[in-house]
Amino acid sequence: MKAFFLKQGLRPNYFWIIASLGFSLSLLQGSSLNSVLSVFIKPMTEEFGWSRGTISGVATLGAFSSGLLGLAIGPIMDRRGVRLLAVLGVLVLGGSLASLGFVGDVWSFYAVNGLARVSSIAVVGVAVTVVMSNWFVRLRGRAMGMTNMGGRLGGALLPLLALYLVANLGWRSAWLILGLMVLTLAIPVFVYLRHRPEDIGLLPDGVRTSDEAVLATSGRRTAKPEAEPAWTRKSAAKTPTLWLLAVASSLAFLGMGGLNLHQVPFMTDVGIPPDQAVGTLTVTSLSAAIGGLLWGALAERIHVRYVLAAAFTVAASGMVLLLSVHSISMAYTYAVVGGIGVGGTVSLSGMAWAEYFGRQSVGAIQGMVMPITMSGNAVGPLITGWAFDVTGSYTQAFALLGAGYVLAAICALLARPVSRAQSPQ
Hints:
The protein has helices spanning about 1-5, 10-30, 35-50, 50-80, 85-100, 105-135, 140-170, 170-185, 185-190, 210-215, 235, 240-270, 275-300, 305-325, 330-355, 360-390, 395-415; strands spanning about 200-205, 205-210. It is mainly alpha-helical. It has two domains: about 10-220, MFS general substrate transporter like domains (Growth Hormone, Chain: A), CATH 1.20.1250.20; about 230-415, Growth Hormone, Chain: A (Up-down Bundle), CATH 1.20.1250. A two-stranded antiparallel ribbon has the order 1-2.
């Protein structure tokens, strides 16, 4: 593997450092999200007498708050760099998770868990996208796929770790240990994370300035920054392309938000044993991790909008399979297909901002659309739960989520690249 990257003209040390940090941050970022919180619902409701709806409400609050904070965080990262904000995000995330082990009432739970979610999504999550977009151009698809793999492995493994810790040490100690795990990333992020490769004399993809001639004679793209579009947030906001991509991302988060919370109850409702139902979540996450890498590599050869539309279509096919589940084999077939599709929608959505509008303002642009994308994540669980309460079935809700993926595919196809001549360079 190392020989491969040397042949690509890459500098292995910082390539692996940045890629590893993106992977690790994405993995531990999941410690604040729904899949981990679901493990704590029962022990916390038993101790405090809270309803499950009360605990679930923090997800909606965190999603909306993250969307609003992203408006301010993105532009700051573009102007000031990501390192200090990323360190602050890790410290707040880890400290908040650890503090959850000491909460004693619902208001402190909402405040601390909400703070953890905001730092995870609006600070750490945006920082990862900005860094990977700046450090990788020719290899951006694979880089985004690697960060998506980290997030998906976190979604698969962290709930299992939390379950073990709760069973053996109690829920308070479990939160404390998860928080300390996140805090260990603060030091490597501070020491190694850099906003752009130019800050240490490199070009994107780990290419040294002295290697440009070698790559040029071999016919490889050197990914010079001046070869990219350089949109500002204001100018990008005037293009229909940006809003089509924002709607597509919001519809993707709508589907993922609804499924993350309601997939297991649906499986048990149709007769799948509880342990097998939980197992489909792990398979979905692992399939999404693999899918993110495959879709990302494909997007380096085919324009991202076509690959993104294909990923949305596969995710919609997964919803059709989900509605057809009546056996364990069908449940796992859905988990594989749906996971592969969803894995592409996440990694490619992050890649699209940089591909369309360049690296210069990717943080500001992503922050501007975050209220839209996070609204899908906030509303998805509520719509799905409400539809079930009204109809007594998940059929209509899941059909709606599947239609959302189809509409997202159409939006991706309609998001034509804006002429570089129109780019305000």
